């Protein structure tokens, strides 16, 4: 028995004369009542295809949440088996009015679930509720909800397995029109692998790795101190490799100060472990492009090296992309225990002069975002947005001295940055290991 539903989902039933007659009457009635010039909710466009997705769990790396939004009916998301509740959610990219949600269940279906919508990924409103699901396809039409995030929240499994969806299709209209072009998602974190494993409940880097994998971004960034304490190759293999190393081939790292402590030589274990991923241009700093973005991966341990500074200037002079992001370990500004690090100021001056939009850092073990500012710390709309994301797994640091232009600070909550880029804009969320969004940044337009 369905206790509540905005509009019951349509199901495929055997055709009988009475059903045919009823269908004809419904069609005629719909045509008579339809508002002129609007074909109805079913005609709204699909707005969820390829959008960033997260979930409460995955059965394994084959069944990540993005598979439910890839348009391929042969791929699917599957949750961990045997536990309730579980959920899958999608970020639509901007506020949308949702009129229809179509769910294509695999054999592991939900007997009871809710379709929910949220403006911020924290507070959810119900669009529809199912209490007697039987799998197959559920097509919820005639919905009326507004928000940026949509979630299917399973509360009771229909089988002894988990929840599994081939496709989640969300239809509606985005407030800003069609989704912007060149969209892609990146996951970033710094200060990651403590010398512990998942066998310890207090070990955080297995949890941040699982979260990062569920988000399933285009690629991953690390902002240094990838492996503690001295970044030995043996420790990389024993700890980092078991968690964040699962998606090593899609990772674009930079070193931190702990990578310089290796007794075998500064960056020795780091270079041996990552190889060409960390040295694609033969140096521990490099650049690459994605869409309309130019990314600069820098080694802040050697910002006093004239060779790196000259390379940076030359690289920026050659850049043809409209948006620029840089990432390195030591933040110029931070409200944490390490505080401001003036070693980064000369590089900031170069980046600022080239119109750089975004800088990502680690070093201090907390999350913090700053308003756009110049290298001297003056707030300016044309300034650089800095984000500290050092909560990848190392022990948290407290907030000590709040810096000017600091807009949000979170300490003690492990998580990752989920950054959404388009050809002209960027925004982000700080997502905790519990899957909840702890902070959402503004949407900025590239300089």
TrEMBL record:
It comes from Streptomyces lateritius. The keyword Signal applies. This is Discoidin domain-containing protein. Keywords: Signal. Residues 34-173 form the F5/8 type C domain. The keyword Signal applies. Pfam families: F5_F8_type_C (PF00754), Metallophos (PF00149). SUPFAM superfamilies: Galactose-binding domain-like, Metallo-dependent phosphatases. It comes from the Bacteria. The lineage of its organism: Bacteria, Bacillati, Actinomycetota, Actinomycetes, Kitasatosporales.
């Amino acid at each position: 028995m369905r206790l509540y539903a905005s509009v019951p989902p349509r199901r495929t039933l055997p055709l009988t004369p009475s059903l045919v007659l009823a269908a004809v009457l419904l069609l005629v009635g719909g045509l008579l009542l339809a508002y002129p010039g609007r074909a109805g909710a079913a005609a709204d466009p699909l707005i969820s295809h390829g959008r960033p997705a997260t979930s409460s769990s995955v059965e394994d790396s084959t069944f990540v949440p993005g598979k439910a939004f890839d348009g391929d009916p042969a791929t699917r998301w599957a949750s961990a088996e045997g536990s309730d509740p579980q959920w899958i959610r999608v970020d639509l990219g901007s506020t949308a009015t949702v009129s229809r949600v179509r769910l294509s269940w695999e054999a592991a279906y939900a007997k009871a679930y809710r379709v929910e919508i949220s403006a911020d990924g924290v507070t959810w409103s119900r669009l529809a509720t199912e209490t007697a699901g039987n799998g197959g396809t559920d097509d919820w039409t005639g919905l009326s909800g507004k928000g940026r995030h949509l979630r299917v929240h399973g509360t009771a499994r229909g089988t002894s397995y988990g929840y599994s969806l081939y496709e989640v299709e969300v239809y509606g209209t985005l407030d800003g029109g069609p989704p912007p072009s060149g969209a892609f998602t990146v996951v970033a974190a710094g200060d990651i692998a403590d010398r512990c494993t998942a066998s310890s409940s207090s070990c955080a880097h297995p949890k941040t790795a699982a979260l990062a994998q569920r988000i399933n971004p285009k690629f991953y960034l690390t902002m240094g101190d990838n492996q503690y304490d001295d970044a030995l190759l043996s420790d990389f293999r024993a700890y980092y490799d078991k968690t964040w190393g699962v998606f090593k081939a899609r990772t674009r790292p930079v070193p931190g100060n702990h990578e310089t402590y290796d007794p075998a030589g500064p960056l020795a274990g780091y270079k041996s472990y990552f190889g060409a991923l960390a040295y694609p241009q033969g140096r521990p700093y490099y650049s690459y492009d994605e869409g309309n973005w130019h990314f600069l991966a820098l080694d802040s341990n050697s910002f006093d090296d004239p060779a790196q500074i000259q390379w940076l200037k030359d690289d920026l002079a050659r850049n043809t992309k409209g948006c620029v992001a840089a990432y390195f370990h030591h933040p110029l500004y931070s409200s944490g225990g390490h505080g401001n690090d003036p070693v980064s100021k000369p590089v900031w001056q170069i980046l600022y002069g080239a119109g750089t939009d975004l800088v990502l850092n680690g070093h201090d073990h907390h999350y913090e975002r700053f308003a756009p500012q110049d290298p001297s710390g003056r707030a300016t709309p044309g300034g650089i947005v800095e984000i500290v994301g050092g909560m990848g797994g190392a022990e948290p640091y407290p907030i000590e001295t709040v810096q000017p232009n600091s807009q949000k600070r979170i300490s003690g909550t492990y998580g990752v940055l989920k950054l959404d880029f388009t050809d002209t804009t960027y925004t982000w969320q700080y997502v905790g290991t519990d899957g909840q969004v702890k902070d959402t940044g503004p949407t900025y337009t590239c300089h």
